[in-house]
Amino acid sequence: MRSMLFVPGDSPRKFEKASEGKADALIIDLEDSVVTEKKSEARGLTLVMLKSRPGPHQLYVRVNALDTGMTLADLAAVMPGRPDGIVLPKSQGGDDVRQVATWLEALEAASGIKVGTTRIVCVATETAGSIFGLGSYKGCSPRLAGLMWGAEDLSASLGATEKASGGVFHSPYRLARDLCLMAAAAAEVAPIDTVYTDIDNLAGLEQETRAARRDGFSAKALIHPKHVDVVNAAFAPTDAERAWAEKVIAAFASNPNSGTLRLDGQMIDKPHLRAAKKILGQP
């Protein structure tokens, strides 16, 4: 999964448009994009969207944060639509995942869904306190599928006046990004890069996405359909990367009993083999 596109939970029109694109996942949003007065209506519309399944996309629902008191009502309303996963905003750590997992177990059973199949992605850096919980996600639940870092709400939590300049995040946000990446790697789940908010700057989006892929992120959250193709292309392996990966895999296949090999004048070992398989999408 490379691209996860947010869609307002109260806009079937935008959902239909998003469904025509090539995002790997659509996140139907019940949180920030829906005002309080329309939350109940948006739950009903989200259920209809989930049941329509207009394309091959995975369908996630971003519920409201646990501290709002609305999370359980959100889940109860949308689970009959069998979403592939839930996005939990403002997550503080593994205990939050366990709480949502407990609710999902009961709601799956009530909806005739195989228990344990609904995944959870956490937006894991939206408050100052959440940074200190990043180490608690490892082993918290088999449902956990990804950790996403976010900058917009973190800015408010910090009382910051500016997140970035010249297209480069300031140090508190780079710290949150890097720690989220490491927490996801430690928990063996997908690290997901934050949204890009300069909607018409596609060159900047490509640059940021390539930097994310370079550092180890496997997907990016998006807020506009025009960003999908740019992000998907940026996460695709280059011809040179594919050629290198094929050579590494072939070298180890020819020398199955060797832990290290010499290839094009460079030493390679098992981590290189794992990296090569990841590039080619092999297990």
UniProtKB/TrEMBL annotation:
Residues 2-225 form the HpcH/HpaI aldolase/citrate lyase domain. Its cofactor is Mg(2+). The keyword Transferase does not apply. Substrate binds at R62, E126. It comes from the Bacteria. Mg(2+) binds at E126, D153. Keywords: Lyase, Magnesium, Metal-binding. Pfam families: HpcH_HpaI. One of its GO terms (biological process) is oxaloacetate metabolic process. One of its GO terms (molecular function) is lyase activity. PANTHER family: HPCH_HPAI ALDOLASE_CITRATE LYASE DOMAIN-CONTAINING PROTEIN (PTHR32308:SF0), LYASE BETA SUBUNIT, PUTATIVE (AFU_ORTHOLOGUE AFUA_4G13030)-RELATED (PTHR32308). Belongs to the HpcH/HpaI aldolase family. This is Citrate lyase subunit beta/citryl-CoA lyase. It comes from Bradyrhizobium huanghuaihaiense.
